[in-house]
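Weekly structure sync, notes
Attendees: PL, DS, HV (note-taker this week)

Item 1: Nematode fatty acid retinoid binding protein
DS walked through the input record. Source organism listed as Ancylostoma caninum. Sequence as pasted into the shared doc:
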Amino acid sequence: MINTLPANVKSLFPKENLEFADSITESESKILKEVFDKHACFEQVGEMIDAVEAKSADLGKRMRTVLAGNCARLEGLSPAAVEYSKKCVHFITHVMCSLTLGKQLSFEKADELHKEFQKLSAADQAALKKANPDVQF
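Item 1 (cont.): predicted structure, written out as tokens:
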């Protein structure tokens, strides 16, 4: 599913998110479709994971591990870099949910995020690259 994405979109996915996406079984995909239909945005990630855990403790645990990995990448970043990182995570969450639900996607936001990265200070760009060596901003 993720492998079908354009390079400018896939490049924004952290390693833990890609590994999670690749690990999803067919039965887990059904659970995610059901949950994402109700909680398909990053602002509802807590409720999303709780709902997944109620159906599959293992899948919910793996989702929490991904979220913890994403949060750990924010440590030591400036407020501007944290804000930019959150926009990236919101976008990749939207992409994952949309792919799972079979919804049409627009990838202009990926181009916007790549351009926005270039507008960050050199220090913020360096810090983001250091905290996210697997992400191509």
